[in-house]
Amino acid sequence: MGDQASTRSECSTTGLAQIVCVNIRGGYSKWERRASMHWGGIVRRLHACSFCVRQGYEELERQLKEVFKERSNILRQLSKTSRELDGIKVNLQSLKNDEASAKSDVQKLLELGKKQREEMKSLQEAFQKQLNEAAEKAEKQQATINFLKTEMERKSKMIRDLQNEKTLARICLRVNDLVDSLTK
């Protein structure tokens, strides 16, 4: 037993598949033979399991690569979508600013329109006042014209009458002269 205890066994493993126990001295004890038979079956089963595990591992590795590939694609799409969303945010902000600017412009235009309407109303009142004053002046001037016309007609008549009187006076003088010359 001491001999067996001093015997060193070395176990070499490759992955999970192979386990080989070698006695450095070269001899196997009874227990080691039983164990080697028992372990031989286990090693064969482990070898088969390790093959399955290796295939499972390779399958998992392939699936992990696919998952990482999908994850990378999703991250790329998320990044692209994020950039698009940022662009949309910028556009929305720009539209909000434009809308606010348009509202401000409309408000200014409404105020300007109101101010212009008030100015137009005041101008209209001033023009109406001037028009009324001009109409009054025109009426006065028309009355003056009518008065002057009547006066002119009256004076013309007087002049005609005077001329007629003068003509009559001349005729009378001539008649007198003729009568005097006839009497002589």
Outline the structure in words.
There is one protein chain. The chain is mainly α and 184 residues long. It has a domain at 2-76. The protein is 86% helix and 7% strand. Strands 1-2 form a two-stranded antiparallel sheet. β1 and β2 (18-23) form a beta hairpin.
Task: Please give a quick description of this structure.
This protein is mainly alpha-helical and 184 residues long. The protein has a domain of 75 residues.
Low-confidence residue ranges: 1-26
Cα(first) to Cα(last) distance is: 218 Å
Q: Multimeric state of these chains?
A: single chain
From N to C, what is the helix and strand string?
HEEH
Which structural class do you get from the secondary structure elements?
mainly alpha
Shape: rod-shaped
Number of helices: 2
Helix content: over 70%
Can you summarize the main beta sheet? 2 strands, antiparallel
